Amino acid sequence: MDINRDRAICVSGMHRSGTSAITRSINLLGVEIGDTNTLMKPHIHNPKGYWEQKKITQLNDQILDLIGLAWDSEEFIKGRWWESKRILPYKDELKKMIRKDYGSYKLWLWKDPRTCLLMPLWQEVLNELNIDINYIICIRNPLDIYKSLNSRDGFSLEKSIRIWFVYTLSILYWTINSKRSVVHYEDILNAPLSTIQSIAKALNLPKVDINNASMLNNFIQQKLRHHQSTYENFMNHQRVPKSVKDLYSTIISDRNINSKEYNRYISQLYLSQ
Fold this sequence. Notes:
Structural class: alpha/beta
Shape: globular
Strand content: 5-15%
Number of strands: 4
Distance between the termini: 32 Å
Order of helices and strands: EHHHEHEHHEHHHHHH
Largest sheet: 4 strands, parallel
Number of helices: 12
């Protein structure tokens, strides 16, 4: 990593997997999040806030729509779609937005789960802007993702599990050989301070001090968890495809996400889709 280059932290992962909690937690360490007046407003399904810039979500939605997909599509985006001429206006818009909203920051972060699907475009844009990217990848038990999406959107188990698979495999594939940290939903709720400290150490972020430790404890609360399935609940579920169980099992059991074996498995699984 070039210390003279600006750096962006991408908080990624499937919807309802704790990305909002992680984003605010990293922001409390002193990593810039942009104009707080343009963040998505808190909602009954996310009372502590989304910590997500509306214009980023809107632009990502427009790009997905151009491709013929949506945030809840159940298919992978294949081919070198980000090099298409019809993508160029959105690429230019993304560059302008980053320069305008984050150009004055040496270290900043953004969060929108849709970025998992559109990562190669974001990577190309940030590289052309001479900005390094590090990644925080949030993982949650897919059964709890389903229960949350079913409650909020009425999604079926099959649809929810498939979307989780597409998002999770996509972000793991597109961040191979990148500086990244995987965080599990249970860890951020059960041990918020030590989890954030581990992320900060892995990605060379500002340390947790007395002041932001107090704010972190007040922000992350166990009562916000409405669903809690076990690993065994998921692995024994008869309606979950084997490929999804294998991916989740690999993520849970092998936290050395930079090993050659891990990345080989992710690459082979992604390219076989």
